[in-house]
Amino acid sequence: MSNDATTPVPDSPFRPEPGDRDLAPQFVLPLVVRIERAAPPPRTDALETAARAVLVMLGDERSTGDGAWARAMRDWQDARIRKVVRRARGAEWRRAEALPGITVTGKTAEVRVFPPVPLDGWPKDLARLQVSGTDLDDPEPPADADRSAPVLWMNPDLDMSAGKAMAQAGHGAQLAWWELDDAARTAWREVGYPLAVRTPGPDHWRTLTTSGLPVVRDAGYTEIAPGSCTVVADHPALR
C-alpha cells in the first residue's frame, strides 16, 4: 500500500490467499465493547457502533499526515487488516478508557477504539480482557434499513459471535471508506457516519454479492472458513 493510509490496492487485506501483506509486520486494531452484566447493549446497536468506531478512527486527524497515530495506522493498513473486539465492564472499562483512543456511543452501546498495536504487543490493560463470550441479542428485530444511508449487509448463512460480527462490520465500513472519494468521505464524516447493519434474506444476499459493491472475504483466523463472504458494504455513493 502507498503512504496514503486510506487508499486501497488490488492486494486486498481481506483475501484469504497469502500475499505481500503477510510479509509486513502485523498489527491489529483493538476495539473494546462495554458489556455491563445488568445492561448489555443490543447486538445490532453494538455492531453499528463498532463500525462507526472504525470510521471515526480512520477519519480522525491524528490518524493521517503527521498525526500522533498516523504511523501506526499506515503500518496496520500495509499488512493484513486485523481487528479484535474484546469486552469490558466496571473497572476494566475504566482502565480501557484511560488509554489513548476514542469512545463511540450508539443508542446504548459504547465501543472504544484504539490506535493499532503489534499483533503480540497489546497494552496489558487490553490484553487481559476477554475475547470469547461476547454474545449479544436483539430484544426486538431491527427496523428495515433506510436505504438512503449506508447499510452493511451481513451474510445470513454465517453464525458469528457478536465480537466476530462487530469486527466484520468494521471491515465492511473500512472497505466503503476506501472506495469513497474525498468529498464523499467528508460528507459522511460531517454527519457523524450514519449507517445500519442488517441481515438480508438469501435472495437479496445473492444479489448483493454480485452487485459490484465492496465485499469482505474473511481470512479465516477465527470462527469461519477462509474466504467466507461476511459483509457487503452498500453506500449510496457506491451504487
Give a quick precis of the structure.
The protein is an alpha+beta fold and 239 residues long. The protein has seven helices and nine strands.
Fold and architecture overview:
There is one protein chain. With 239 residues, the chain is α+β, with helices and mostly antiparallel strands. It is 31% helix and 17% strand. The protein has helices at residues 43-59, 70-78, 90-97, 124-127, 162-179, 182-190, 202-209, and strands spanning 27-34, 83-88, 102-105, 110-113, 117-118, 151-154, 196-198, 215-217, 229-234. Strands 1, 2, 3, 4 and 5 form a 5-stranded mixed beta sheet that branches. It has a 4-stranded mixed beta sheet with strand order 7-6-9-8, with helices on both faces. β3 and β4 form a beta hairpin. The radius of gyration is 17 Å and the shape is globular. The two termini are 25 Å apart. Residues 1-10 have low confidence and may be disordered.
